[in-house]
Gamma-glutamyl phosphate reductase
Amino acid sequence: MSTLQSTTKQLNVKQQAKLAQKASKKLALLTEKEKNEALLTIADVLEKDSAYILEENKKDLSAGEKKCFSEALMDRLRLTADRVKDFADGLREVTELQDPVGEILSGWTLDNGLKVEQVRVPLGVIGMIYEARPNVTVDATGLALKSGNAIVLKGGSNALNSNKAIVAVIHKALENTKIPAEAVQFIASTDREAAGQLFTMKEHIDVLIPRGGGALIKTVVENATVPVLETGVGNCHIYVDQFADVEKALAILENAKTDRPAVCNAAETFIFHEAWLETNKDKVQALFEKHGIEVHGDEKAAELLPDVIPANEKDWVEEYLSLAVAVKVVSSVEEAVTHIERYGTKHSEAIVTENSENAQLFLNAVDAAAVYQNASTRFTDGSALGFGAEIGISTQKLHARGPMGLPALTTIKYRMTGDGQVR
Amino acid sequence: MSTLQSTTKQLNVKQQAKLAQKASKKLALLTEKEKNEALLTIADVLEKDSAYILEENKKDLSAGEKKCFSEALMDRLRLTADRVKDFADGLREVTELQDPVGEILSGWTLDNGLKVEQVRVPLGVIGMIYEARPNVTVDATGLALKSGNAIVLKGGSNALNSNKAIVAVIHKALENTKIPAEAVQFIASTDREAAGQLFTMKEHIDVLIPRGGGALIKTVVENATVPVLETGVGNCHIYVDQFADVEKALAILENAKTDRPAVCNAAETFIFHEAWLETNKDKVQALFEKHGIEVHGDEKAAELLPDVIPANEKDWVEEYLSLAVAVKVVSSVEEAVTHIERYGTKHSEAIVTENSENAQLFLNAVDAAAVYQNASTRFTDGSALGFGAEIGISTQKLHARGPMGLPALTTIKYRMTGDGQVR
């Protein structure tokens, strides 16, 4: 496997970013067919070399065991032949997505005959800063390359060996394709300074995408001068209105809280209209018991439900990402909106109601990437919405909001064609 | 005029931003008609109270005289009854623009019946940081309000009295409209700390837009954690190819350099193909002489043209914004592209050629908001392209690129309507 290992050269971060930028110029001009062929080649070579990847992954796993990582973290870190096959299949799916590059978004001709076109072009170089999951290495690379962008990867130190092995395999695969191997750069240095350099390398990196916990995202946002696509933190609320249908409400609460509690579109706070909760408290209690949900509630919640831990400010602010929930009781939809305005992270917010006036008030007034009437917040997801793979879920307002598919990795260019027009 | 002056209250920046944010929630729900009525009212009151504005403007002018401002700066600062009328007419034109808010960009229904809509919504609160021109106070306010956004204005200290007077008039006008006066906040404090507070007020401000010189923009980009819409610096190039038509080339060079040398879409560097310049040097020289253009050129330029000042690195990098030009001579379109890649600011870049292969190479390879074949870079402008008034010209790749009209001041929201869907 020496040929694989030798592909990770000892360059500094700036050199790597410059190589990526140079490669991005070539990549931007490739056809969809050429990019797809390269992705399919990577998929095949990943499967063929999966033994090498798993071997390197074992090093990360045994280091993780020594550091007494939680089973959840170990699970995120762990690769198997099946998981590597999933990576490869993921890349094959990306080849099925429409290439956004070259799309003419609009075109018109000025009175003087100047032809104006708005054309989609790649952003250039994407800086991806992420934590333990090695799958991000493959997924982000696939989406970046398909949309004509080079990528500089800075993965978490816990998955260093796995990520290095995956990138070595990608580099080997790219040797026989039209995509230059330099379009995929992996920063092997684990010191914080290396990531810090990415934050300010505006001349070579066009956008930073942090994927991971709130602390990681905060660090990037606060320190970067390169524009950031902020992803992920979801303190999502389900408001059960006075006019909520009982069956729908219970199904949505259950799904949003228990289907996958650790993901960002899971619910963290239930807000109940007082009158509704009074009528339906036994059913709500049965739901909590069924799943062993730990309830942190306000005073009114404690009056109506058993075993309520008194909620403090932290409960309204934080993501539990587990089978715990904060419960707030309100006496109007306006009060629910005010609570969400104060504590929401502008990710996904839902109202359960049969009253269209209350629904409209909620959907219009709540400022979030996704607002729902009578559905689970779990649908804020690229594949659920039919976008295919996503690079993340944007919780910012600029550039892209909500699940980001390939178009979020592009920008536009005005292409003007004339025959001597002047102003 | 005491009622006008009293509307500027003594609040700190954070209090002002919070008031703007609160007002933005109401403003976001207004109809286009309500917003247009408010803008027309502002226009009328600006005209009616123009004597007060001019009186306050005189204070800035006499302070400027004492500080020995250049005539160009004095001119930017100077208001007249006609200019105030232009402000009012500008607002009236904004009422003619289509309101982007509420537009449904796309909509579809998932197999499970969940209805998904992508709806345009206002960004929320815009922070505008700008230099001497008092017209920005009116223009930016008009565009922000029309697109349902509140605005926090931080103008230059040189125009402080003029800006305060304009905002006082706007506040007075808004009293009789549906738009809350708090939606327009003006930061009267001239200390740098006040602007600095805006840079990091992510909880209350959704985007910062700096308008002014390169130093101002750099300060904002480097210090802001609030997302920035970067505008304006244009180091624009005209490349005259070997296959350029002589008449078109001369007309484009003349227009791009001399029509309005101080604006960002004016040309700063001419790149000539060697063979073309050898043939047409006398005509080029005649053009330079006609306008008294100062030429800073490389060695080859000095060989072919008289009175060439040797160009140094600074000449390739900086905007002259005056009747000076840098001249570089190359022997291929690739060499021109490489020069632009190195020194361009990704604003507007043009090739003059009748050769379609060279044109395509240039248009595809040059990374800029606008790329031109056979037309002047001066068309990179909202009104020239038919967008109506613009909030600035974005030279960044995220969110908006090129001239920014009203849609650049909006984001989207996914609005989901279901009947109990869960995943």
